[in-house]
Amino acid sequence: MAQEDGAALIEGLPIQSAPQRTSVALPRLRTANRRQVALRAVDLETLVADEHRVRLVWSFVEGLDLAALYSTIKAVEGQPGHPPADPRILLALWLYATVQGIGSARELARLCEEHIAFQWLCGGVGMNAKTLADFRVAHGAALEQLLADSFTALLRIGAAKLDRVAQDGVRVRAAAGAASFRRHSTLEVCRQEAEERVRRLRAELEQDPGAASRRQVAARHRAADDRARRVKQALAVTETLQAQQQEQARQRAEREARKAALAQPDEAKPIPPKPEAEKEPRASTTDAEARVMKMADGGFRPAYNVQFASDTTSGAIAGVAVDNSGSDMGKMAPMSEALGEHYGQRPGEHLADGGYAKLDDIKALAEAGVTAYVPVPTPRDKTRDPHAPQQADAPAIADWRERMGTEQAKEIYKERAATAECSNAQARNRGLRQFVVRGLDKVRNIAVWHALTHNMVCGWRLAAG
Questions:
Q1: Which of 37, 60, 270, 452 would suit a FRET pair with 170, their CA atoms being 20 to 30 Å apart?
Q2: Eight-state DSSP code of residue 374
C-alpha cells in the first residue's frame, strides 16, 4: 500500500528531462565487489577503544569473587568433559546487556555475533541463547552474594554508608496474560483435559510407534506434560487461596461476634455476622505465582512486587526483595532484617513512603535500634493532630508520631524520593518493565541482576567524581 502511494506521488510530479551529456564516454565509478577476497590483520583488542564502557564492565567483573560459580563446573583438568564458557564472560555479557536495556537471551546471542563490543567480551568463545538464558536464572544465591560484595566494596572505600537507607517498591508486569487466570472449578476441568491429552498421546504411541518421528513425539509429550504441570501448579495456588479466604472469614466472624457481645452484654446470643459472598480465587496457567496488582497507571495486571533498599549516600542498592503481594505494608522489617544478615549490622535509619506505615514494623524496627521515617497516615477525624500520640500507642509508636512532626524528620525524609525513586527509575530505563521469565525464584534473579548492574554504574560514577 505504501509503495502504491509512493508511485502515485511520483507520477504526479512534473517530468524532468535528463541533462545533455557533452561526451559519449561512460562515467568511471568505484562499484561494490563483495566477492573479492581480502586478508586483514586485525584483533578484537584494537577494535575496541580504550575508553569504551565495555572495558569498565570487564574490569568490574574481574574484581568480583566468582568462586561460587567456578565450584559448580564439572569439567576439570585431567578428566573428560566438554569445557563450558568462562563464568566471567557470561556475567560480563549480561551486565553489559542490562546496561544497554537488553533482556532477551536471543537478542544477546545475536549481538555476540554482530556487535563488536559483545564480540570483545566473548573473545572468540561461542555463545547461544540457551546457555545465556540458563546462566541468567541458575545462580540466585551466588548473584545475591555478588550484590552484597559490590555494596561492601563501596562501604570499604567510604563511598557508601549503611547509616540510612530508603526503601521503595516497583510493580513489574509478569510474563502472564490476564486471560490465563482461571477459577478453581475451571482449573479442575483443565487438569482433566491435560491428563486426558497425555494419556491419548501415550496410547497413540503404543498403537503405532512409527506414526510420527521421535522428535515430533517428544515435542508433543513435552507440551502436554508442561501443560499438565502448569495447571497443577495453578490448582495448588487456588487451594491455598481458598484456605486463606476461609481463615479470614472465620476471623471476621469471631471479631463480629466479640463486637456484638460487647455491644449487648445482657443478651446470651450474639448477633451472627452478615454472610459475605467470597469470590472464587483464580490463578494463572502460565505463571501460577504471579498475582493481579494495581499498577502505577491505575490498571490491574499480573505482576510482581520488587523492593529495593538503597543507600542515601551513594545511591547504591543494598538489598532486594521480591514477592507477589500488591501491598507494601509489612515489608520494612523483613528488609531491615535481611540487611542485618548480609552486612552484620542494620541501617540506623529506614526511610519509606506512607504505604509502609505498619505499626508492628515500626515497633519491631525500634526494638532493633532502627529509627523509622515513614509519614503518619491522615486520621479520619480531621480535627485530630496526626502527630499527637494516642492513648493506645506503644512508646515506640508514640515516638514515631512525634518524630514525624518535627522539621528535622521532614528534612531527612526528603532523601527518600531522591534515592529510592531514582533507583527504580534507572531500573525501568534499563528494561525492568516486564519479566520474560516465570516463577518467583527466576523473577528475583532478574531483579538482582538489575541491582548488581545499578551498583556497577554507581561505582563508575563515584570513581569519576
A1: 60
A2: -
Q: 10 Å Cβ neighbour count for 134?
A: 12
Percent of the chain with pLDDT over 70: 86
In whole angstroms, give the CA distance from residue 442 to residue 289.
Answer: 11
How buried is residue 26: exposed, middle or buried, by Cβ count under 10 Å (0-12/13-18/19+)? exposed
**Cα–chain-centroid distance for residue 140?**
13
Assess whether pLDDT exceeds 60 at residue 277.
Answer: no
In the Cβ-directed half-sphere of 318, how many Cα atoms lie within 13 Å?
36
- pLDDT tens digits along 200-254: 777 766 666 665 566 676 776 677 776 777 777 676 777 777 677 777 777 777 7
Which string of DSSP letters, residue by residue, matches 51-71? T-HHHHHHHHHHTS--HHHHT
C-alpha cell at 118: 559483545
Alpha-carbon distance of 312 to 411, in angstroms, equals: 13
Q: What is the DSSP letter of 214?
A: H
Q: Under a CB-based contact definition with an 8 Å cutoff, are residues 190 and 231 in contact? A: yes
Residue spans of alpha helices (H) in 344-384: 359-367
Q: Is 22 exposed, middle or buried (0-12, 13-18, 19+ CB in 10 A)?
A: exposed
Q: Would you state the pLDDT for residue 267?
A: 47
141-177+289-464: which CATH number, 3.30.870, 2.10.110, 3.30.420, 3.40.50?
3.30.420
Could you report the per-residue pLDDT of 377-393, keeping only the tens digit for each?
988 888 888 888 888 88
C-beta separation of 257 from 270 below 8 A: yes
CA distances 162 to 108, 316, 345, 402, Å, are: 35, 10, 8, 25
